[in-house]
Design a protein that fits this description.
By secondary structure, the chain is mainly α. It is built from 13 helices and 2 strands. The two termini are 19 Å apart. The relative contact order is 0.13.
């Protein structure tokens, strides 16, 4: 957004700010975002408090959710379907993949509905609209951090230890945030006008999970489909995240590079779509 002062007032000098949308989607007003950074911190803290308000277990839910998913995956995919997991025990394989996936799924789901969920705030006061999807993505990092606390003893219990590839985990988490933020911008732009998004999105996330190496290794994907499979940014990120936690020296660099390009592309596309609808959000939400 750009700001310009109005003319003089008859009763004396009066400063009026006119809010106008930028004419180019790539011209993000970084100075405005930086000036309102405290609001972003407030929104993140609000989302964290609301998530666990009046809950008996509180942050323990961040541990219960991935553990319960791992139990189900281990029974149905590990024992019954006997899906291979390489040299890694299947519960550890599933847990390391589920951690990053649930972080992505929660970030994407909440970012996609963040605008409609804050209808009253949007229609009463102006602030950078990008802060709403950004705040829920940042708040989801807390759950990931809590779940990672359990991952360390879980990895050690099975006789593994993080190696040098653990250094890749922070940039991978950031790129996953970028992916969820970009796609969340796209869905949130449509959600303010078409509330069907909140019904379609869970199905998309569910299908996307089975298109990612959460419960199976990417080695099971036929060679002729590997290039197409790598276009899914979560494919490379999950494999690298898993390698970092268990200390594997095999890092799928080619898949990681493709995932990085896809993540940046999703973010750029999200900003483009969001800019096209931002000026009408308060009118249609």
């Amino acid at each position: 957004m750009s700001f310009s002062p109005a003319a003089h007032h008859p009763g004396g000098p009066r400063h009026v700010t006119i809010i106008e949308p930028l004419q180019r989607w790539w011209r993000i007003d970084w100075s405005e975002l930086w000036a309102n950074r405290e609001l972003l911190f407030y929104l993140v803290w609000r989302d964290i408090k609301v998530r666990y308000k009046q809950t008996a277990l509180g942050f323990i839910w961040a541990l219960v959710q991935p553990l319960s998913a791992v139990v189900v995956f281990s029974v149905f995919f590990g024992r019954l379907a006997r899906i291979p997991s390489g040299d890694m025990p299947y519960p550890l394989f599933a847990y390391t993949g589920t951690l990053l996936w649930q972080f992505f799924a929660r970030s994407l789901n909440e970012a996609s509905t963040s605008l409609a969920a804050n209808e009253r705030l949007l229609t009463k006061v102006y602030f950078p609209r990008l802060f709403l999807p950004a705040s829920v993505v940042l708040a989801a990092v807390v759950d990931l951090f809590v779940a990672l606390v359990l991952a360390v003893p879980f990895v050690i219990y099975y006789g593994y230890a993080p190696g040098w590839s653990v250094l890749l985990i922070p940039p991978v988490v950031f790129l996953v945030m970028l992916t969820a933020f970009g796609i969340g911008l796209i869905f949130s732009s449509f959600d303010v006008r078409y509330r069907d998004v909140r019904y379609v999105l869970p199905f998309i996330i569910q299908v996307w999970m089975f298109a990612s190496p959460v419960v199976y290794p990417s080695a099971l994907v036929p060679e002729r489909w590997r290039s197409l499979f790598a276009l899914n940014p979560m494919a490379g990120f999950i494999e690298v995240f898993r390698s970092g936690l268990v200390g594997s020296y095999h890092v799928p660099w080619s898949m990681l590079i493709v995932s990085c390009v896809a993540a940046v592309s999703f973010c750029v596309l999200g900003l483009f779509v969001f800019h096209g609808t931002e000026r009408r959000i308060a009118d249609v939400v």
